[in-house]
Amino acid sequence: MSEPEQARAGRRWGVPVAEVALIAAVWISLRLAGSAPGLDVGTTDRTVPLPPEVPGFSADAWYLPDDHLLGFVEIPGGAFTMGSDPALDRLAYDIERWSPRVAQGSVDVPTFYMGRYEVTVAQYAAFVRATGRAVVEPSALAPPPDHPVSNVSWTDALAYARWLDDELARGEATPPGLRALLDEGWRVALPTEAQWEKAARGDDGRVYPWGDEPRQDRAVFGARGTAPVGTLECPECPYGLSDMSGNVWEWTRSPYQPYPYDESDDREGLDAEALWIMRGGAFNDGPQNIRAASRGGADPGARRPFIGFRVALVRSAAR
Questions:
Q1: The model's pTM
Q2: Do the domain assignments include residue 101?
Q3: If we measure between CA atoms, which residue out of 288, 280, 277, 283 comes closest to residue 92?
Q4: DSSP 150
């Protein structure tokens, strides 16, 4: 950690910087050889095969969910409780604590739309075929088309979001309701970590998207691999989203910052940031990492079989 980062961490937490080293033990420490940012070297291929159909998704609309907003679900604006209180959540990590004196904080998030599902292999394949983007890890496109794409970096996820935004803006397959939102200035982006947590847990401070106890009939975790997106229904989840816990970790557009959360840090000085927040846990995690408040982080070039993403629709220039 650089001296400026140490100073900021010390100012905002008021605790020794050594505590931030919990990232290495608590998070999935992905700063390994071969995961440096910017190494987009791999096979570029505009002939990547696409499936003729994927049940529940529209092959004519970039393989997005076949509904009136192509899978975007409205998350109403308002305040929610962010972070973890160890008195209420015995599995809470220290880096989820708001401050030394306050366990949790209240964050007001404006209305946005979240993708119902994680971005799938078919959706990402359509992006690769259209753009010729390098596939650094060929295994990214190996699973069945309805599984979440993985082995994609933060920069890959950002590029997909920008491509989809352009496609929806000019594509004839964009439904009228979604086109109206785009015309009003809404844009496809990765969610911030505050948006992600609000979408996962709602406004009642629950530990998991469905409640306060882990349930294997609600999320794909403790498993050997991913499952098709939406395999497990979650009627208790606040907004009807799928796989907000488990399956794959999901990139956000928030750089790592010690709490209390400050949205301005998602926009300023990003060239100096080394870690980007991931949320939700993955198929190979246990109950602790799939909690709604659990925070993971990796450098922007990291590609792993348990990291994917989902996209949001936001009223913001950040993409």
A1: 0.87
A2: yes
A3: 288
A4: -
